[in-house]
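Lab manual, section 2.4: Encoding a predicted structure.

Procedure: take the sequence of the chain (270 residues), apply the prediction step described in section 2.3, and record the output as structure tokens. A sample record is shown.
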Amino acid sequence: MPGDGTYLGMACGRVGVVAAGYRLLPEVVLKVEIWSDVVCPWCYIGKRRFEAALARFVRRDEVEIEWKAFELDPNTTTAPSGSGDGDYAGRMARKYGMDRAQAQQRLDAMTESAAAEGLDFHFERAVRGNTFDAHQVIHLAGLRGVQDAVKERLLRAYFTDGEAVAERSSLARLASQAGLDADEVAAALEAQTYAGEVRREEAEAAAFGISGVPFFVIDRKYGVSGAQAPEVLFQVLEQAWAEAHPLPTLTTVGATGDGAVACGPDGCPV
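Recorded output:
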């Protein structure tokens, strides 16, 4: 990462939020930006691990999370609806130059890792597709305050349900299940309203040197690459908070040492 940030480096790469009677929302004081893709298995696992870390973080209500765009394969084509394009292992073998048995072994291991996080992966159902439009929907969801719910729905749609997350009609339907208006989604995709924002987020990723996802950026100071264990993510949250909110240095006034009458671990002077 550029600047003075600290980089910690399982990831998918292109190559491999008081008035009487009202409860005010807490002030956001820690920003977490997460670059990921909806067809990235480690991104879904990483989401669960980050959620586990956040659940332990006392200041979790003061953390703002923003999901940002990263396309694992910007040049991928979208499988026709109903094409039965379910040979994930075969596609993986061809892409990475391995035989199908090796690819299936890796998918089985990934499925086990997902199950350990409470996720139900079905690679045999996955429908190949370009994710550029999905990222536009996720950006819109951020503007409407339902980004995490939409992100979750699209991940589950791809890895569990076998939905075509590249088809605009599917995206509108799935997003509506997570709080967005289907007509607004359809119109935004037709006009490519947020295409520029997606490209900007991808350019940010390139500027940070991000080549694999998930990638977590905390307060633009710390970078965490991959689906790290919850303990690692929790420690980064704690450290980022502590550094952003250091304890003040006190100036002692009055007598010190023997002249300061006070009780201590050894008792109280009389």
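Check your result against the sample. Confidence is low (pLDDT under 50) at residues 1-9, 15-24.
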